Amino acid sequence: MFQIDCPWCGPRDQSEFAYAGEGGIKRPEDPSALTDAEWADYLFMRQNPRGRHHEQWRHVHGCGQFFDVVRQTVTYRIESVDLPGRPALANASGEVR
Amino acid sequence: MRQTQRLEHGGRIDRSRTIKFTFNGREYTGHPGDTLASALLANGVSIVGRSFKYHRPRGIVGAGPEEPNAIVQVGSGALTRPDQRATQVELFDGLEASTAARLGFDPMGVNNTFSRMLPAGFYYKTFKWPAKYWPNYEKRIRQAAGLGHAPTEADPDRYDHMNAHCDVLVVGGGPAGLAAALRAGRAGARVLLADENAELGGALLSERVQESTRIDGRSYRDWIDTTSAELAAMDNVRVLTRTTAFGNYDHNFLGLMEDKADYRGGPAEGEVRHRLWRVRARRTVLATGALERPLVFGNNDRPGIMTVSAVATYLNRYGVCPGWRAVIFTNNDSAYRTALDLKAAGRDVAAVVDVRCKPSSALVDAAREAGIPIHDSSAIIRARGSRRVKSVQIARVKYGQLTGDYETIACDLVASSGGWSPVVHLHCHIGSKPAWDDVAACFLPGPDNPGQCSAGAVTGQFSLRDALVQGFEQGGAVASELGFEPGDDKAPSAPTPGDVLPIEPFWLAPSERPLSRGPKQFVDYQNDTTAADIALAVREGYESVEHVKRYTAMGFGTDQGKLGNINGMAILAWLLDQSIAETGTTTFRPAYTPISFGAVAGRTADHLFDPIRKTAMHDWHVANGAFFEDVGQWKRPWYYRRVGESMQQAIDRECHATRNSVGVLDASTLGKIEVHGADANRFLDMIYTGGRLKMKTGTCRYGLMLHEDGMIFDDGVTAKLGENHYYLTTTTGGAAGALNWLEQWHQTEWPDMDVFFTSVTDQWATIAVNGPKSRDVLQALCDDIDFERDAFPFMTFRDGTVAGVSARVFRISFTGELAFEINVDANYGRHVWDAVMAAGEPYGITPYGTETMHVLRAEKGFIVAGQDTDGSVTPMDMGMHWAIGKKKTDFIGMRSLSRSDIVAEGRKQYVGLKPRDGQIVLPEGAQLVDDPQAELPMPMIGHVSSSYYSDTLGHAFALAVVKNGRSRHGEIIYSPQPDGTVIAAEITDPVFYDREGARQYV
Amino acid sequence: MSKIKLESPLIDQPEARTGNNGPTNAGVTLVERSFLGHIMLRGRSDDAAFLAACARVFGVEPPTAPNTYAEGNGAVIGWMGPTEWLFMVDSEARAAWLDALREALADVHAGVVDLSGGQTTIGLEGSHALDVLAKGSTLDLHPRVAGAGFCTRSLLAKSAMFLRVIETGHRFEIVVRRSFADYLWQWLVDASGEYGLRILPAESSLALAGLDVAAPRAAATA
Question: Which residues form a coiled coil (chain B) (predicted)?
């Protein structure tokens, strides 16, 4: 059972979170401009690395926020957590924890 | 029977009280503080079991969790506990224990006589063919194996989970663990100390009270008592005894099982029996100690042969000596301490047989001075005696070879010590590999896991003094890592041990006969695995320790190889001519010792197994004969059965009423989401296939949600409540997933859009009034909404007051009939429902459940997302081109709809099916084929997704997907059934009733 | 027309309504605080206009420090997420608060959602209240971690909850969704059993912690 350090709420048990897929995948600006192969790459192809994995989790039974996690898939060590690139979602003091 | 083996003095038992217990029906006595094992030994019981395969008589070998033989069934009836280690079963008055195997004459003992025909792999090889008979073989083999039996009655007890957080978890209450807990606790850290024993002290409790075991100048028992008291007095320290840390999981999460009642015969009314602790620690100190290995020699399983440490434990902790004349067999110094203990207890030590050459050290010399005969450079080759050891044959050995003649020494107790194996199990549970240490001749914990460290004997520090210092230091170190300030007080001190002669690894006593011909040399007692079995495995080509384990069964069973595995791995290494480090260990997995199913389940049983979600009208449904269907965690009325009705008759009645007058459905379970924000329309336009930009306030639109792969995953209605304010419905089962979907796109892809989503599923009770008379019912309940056809058109909503309660009424329909959905604050749901029933009485208003809902919607060809769709169908597959906004340039899933394989010919398409025999209802999920005579495997061209009997239509009908189905209306398709029959059906349009769709507009 | 009757989601648990005459020295006391006003407030923590508009109604700004709540004007406002707050008020005050909030927030990016019928409130207190929570919650509620003014959304047994610390270490409040309330109540009764349970008759007034209005607590995460 992992303990995940929610950027908002601090360390919480894995049971409060939901895995939300590989992180850092940006939806193409104009899908209609893509070939089938390019679109399939966005749709289906994932890294699934042995080692550092950039993934998304949601604190679904807490603050409800999605955030980015870098996790070692071998040791399960969580290297870092970050908000998914939205500076506006900073905490009270304006800093992104 | 008298306690003939009980010493006059000593031990931690309460001699002032005598308690009775039975073993295999015979009555014995013992004292509080005894274990079942110590009490049996006190009573002179030497045979406590029969071995797994050969049915050899077996006695107690160990004194703790490593015990492989004394596996008993405790108690009877619903409370019975199988496979308990007698060494860990605390004695209580009235305890009943039994063994599965017969301890007297055992007809299966014949297996021993013919044992050369039962080598490792015998069962695999013999019972492999014919495969269909394996279940019979298995049953016989299991019966013969003599393991315990599970209770057959329902468990009446309560079990519990407890989540705990601490700064420092200390596993093990021996000297190292106590010192660690003390230091961390004094520093102010939140400490949790867990120990599997009834009292703290660990291995110390097995020591004689003497000068060499004094701590801080006092008897170790005093020290344990004052330390326990100091820990108990600290608010920040929690001590759990009778609590085994059974598993070490990721991120410093450990599982502990606490016995709260078994030790005293079971829980009183309302008490918890076992508690599973789920501990999240910031730091963990593993002070799990070490277990002694026995030495491997011929007939080393005879009753009366034990580990040296077990003898020490019975002597010093329980005041029991398991024999009168002992031979000690060792390759290290620690056994000499016990030789001296035996001597001090007035027992005869006939010999210490030491494999080392001319041993000399503080302990060895002390034994010599005490007059104990020491046979150096010698080994026990085999034991004699059948139901109990009577003598041993020893001989001189060098480099593992016999170098001298046999000498026989009479004895009734053999204690062997092959050295100590640190209990690295917890350390290894999360993937860390143990490291072989040639000097200490044992596996030590590998690199520390994050946030965890080890202290005491588990690190190979086997002296009391070192354990105390190391524990104290680690306790202080982890506390200061966490920001606490441990004081500068000194570690508890024990006398400096004298010089120690190093251990000399010794894995297998030599013999003049080949391995497979001599008396059996047991490696794993519980699985009857011998050195010869390992040799056979190697001869047959096994090299990996994991494979040898599975071939020989070494390390399986309730003890999981705690006693014998290291010996087995060392023997394997020797046979493969490689190092022990190269051979490695098998994988250590939780649970360290078995835990109960009850503890795993905790409170998650019976009525608390899973939440039962009820709507505000639930009690009305119960009172009115509803049968319920589980939809997710919701209880939804399935149908309402009147006296004398069959289910089908009830559904026919409900359908008829709704199509011809008025029916009412509790639709409260539908997912409901409110959407706010200036970008709400833009956002929803991306989420739904249909346009949302031009919706007018007060109107509703049906919509499909696709995944990005173009497949339908949910549907529902969108209502525009106001400028920048929408309301969505989702399927009952899809509510949480749909909200998650919206949040994910918003938060991770379009965070700059101003939009909020709020679940209001539970806020609204939803009453769906359907049927030609629904308008009349609503008019009777509400005078501030104009329900006339043109004033309140289809696919719009109105706010008003229904039955005196503020309500939002939607004119939407899932039946194809004129219909209104009343939404009110759920606290008023029952009130409004009652009012609807009263107002509908003149029209024979009929409550209907999900089954009727399905018949009615399916007659109209309306899909249920998740039933008629399965994540592999697009809107076009479902014939729902109309649901896609013609002018839209993008929405989630849109690009996928033009992928080559999505637009390709031959996709399965949504159709209706009309069975040729209108009375036959096709099973949902049934496969569809063109030619039922085709060879297997038959090409499958579709399947049935919904299927019902329609009283309205007068025949059965179904919805299905069929390859190219839309162009095949009128053709016949077949569904072969498991019973060999074939159902023929005509492919039709999926809309069976009111094809023009006129009825909902009336 | 018949008298309009309200029903709590604990309708099937008669003791939640009437109490159980349990011992006064019970280790755990449960009470349903039924029919309170629950208003979900949506806005952005970094939106000054939104915060100021709230402050005009509430007296103080909604707390922006995660997992804290504030009290003001007889209401409680708890942080649920960076765009979500739960407003709780006495049941009679609900309508007035809804109107006031909707009016005050009409011109800013905000949402005001009445959830008063969609959830209920259970008070849990006593010397073993923390133990009962620990049986079903993985939260660390030790006073060192979850101090005065702490609140959070989380799980309790198999239900979602919104938890508020009223008095550190021994007095808590659980807000639970209507459809899970019956399950969660039964779970609480079962989990409390070994400590002695007293159930008080249902109340409909809001529990206030007497927090210092001027200074909402800082984040209580250790």
Answer: none
Residues of chain C in contact with residue B633, where contact means CB-CB under 8 angstroms, are 179
Identify the CATH number of the domain defined by range B905-1001: 2.40.30.110
CATH of domain B295-417: 3.50.50.60
Question: Cα separation of B645 and B285, whole Å?
Answer: 67
pLDDT at B184 over 50: yes
B507-576 falls under which CATH superfamily?
Answer: BFD-like [2Fe-2S]-binding domain (1.10.10.1100)
Confidence of residue B142 (pLDDT cuts 50, 70, 90): low
The pTM assigned to this predicted structure is 0.94
Number of Cβ within 10 Å of residue B335's Cβ equals: 30
Could you state, in order of their start, the residue ranges of all structural domains in chain C?
14-35+117-199, 37-116
Q: Chain A closest CA to B895's CA: distance in Å?
A: 6
Q: What mean pLDDT comes out for the span A7-13?
A: 96
Task: Please report the number of interchain residue pairs, chain A to chain B, with beta-carbon separation below 8 angstroms.
Answer: 62
Q: How far is B695 from chain A (nearest CA, A)?
A: 25
The predicted pLDDT at position A87 comes to: 36
B252, pLDDT greater than 70: yes
Question: Any chain A CB within 8 A of the CB of C42?
Answer: no
Contact C119 B762 (CB under 8 A): yes
| Residue-level pLDDT at B770 | 98
Tell me the nearest-neighbour CA distance from A83 into chain C, angstroms.
12
Note whether B805 and B832 are within 8 A (CB). Answer: yes
Helix (H) or strand (E) holding B961: strand B955-963
Architecture of domain A3-82 in CATH? 2-Layer Sandwich (3.30)
Compare all CA atoms of chain A with the CA of B432 and give the residue at the minimum distance. Answer: A75
Please state, in angstroms and rounded to a whole number, the distance separating the CA atoms of residues B855 and C47.
Answer: 50
- Judging contacts by C-beta atoms under 8 Å, the chain B residues touching residue A39 are 895-896, 899
Q: What class is the C37-116 domain?
A: alpha beta
Count CB neighbours of B232 within 10 A: 11
Q: What is the DSSP string of B708-754?
A: TTS-EEEEEEEEEEETTEEEEEE-TTTHHHHHHHHHHIIIII-TTS-
Determine whether domain B159-289+421-482 maps to CATH 3.30.70.380.
no
Instruction: Inform me whether the C-beta atom of residue C152 falls under 8 Å from chain A C-beta atoms.
Output: yes
From chain A, pick out residues whose CB is under 8 angstroms from the CB of B896: 39, 43
Residue B3 contacts by C-beta under 8 Å, 6 or more apart in sequence? B29, B30, B39, B42, B43, B320
Per-residue model confidence (pLDDT) at position A96: 36
What does the block give as tokens for B406?
Answer: 């046999």
Query: Would the pLDDT of B112 be above 80?
Result: no
The per-residue b/e assignment along B89-117, b for 16 or more CB within 10 angstroms, e otherwise, is: bbbbeebbbbbbbebeebebbebbeebee
The whole-angstrom distance between B736's CA and the closest CA on chain A is: 10
Indicate if ipTM > 0.85. yes
For domain B671-759, which architecture applies?
A: 2-Layer Sandwich (3.30)
Give me the residue spans of the domains in chain A.
3-82
Task: Please state the rounded mean pLDDT for residues B97-110.
Answer: 74
Domains B159-289+421-482 and B295-417 share a fold: yes
Is C129 in contact with C171 (CB distance < 8 Å)? yes
Q: Which chains touch C (3 or more CB pairs under 8 A)?
A: A, B
CA distances from B21 to B89, B151, B198, B425 (A): 12, 21, 19, 34
Are B280 and B163 in contact, with CB atoms under 8 Å apart?
Answer: yes
Per residue in B683-737, pLDDT (tens digit) is 999 999 999 999 999 999 999 999 999 999 999 999 999 999 999 999 988 899 9
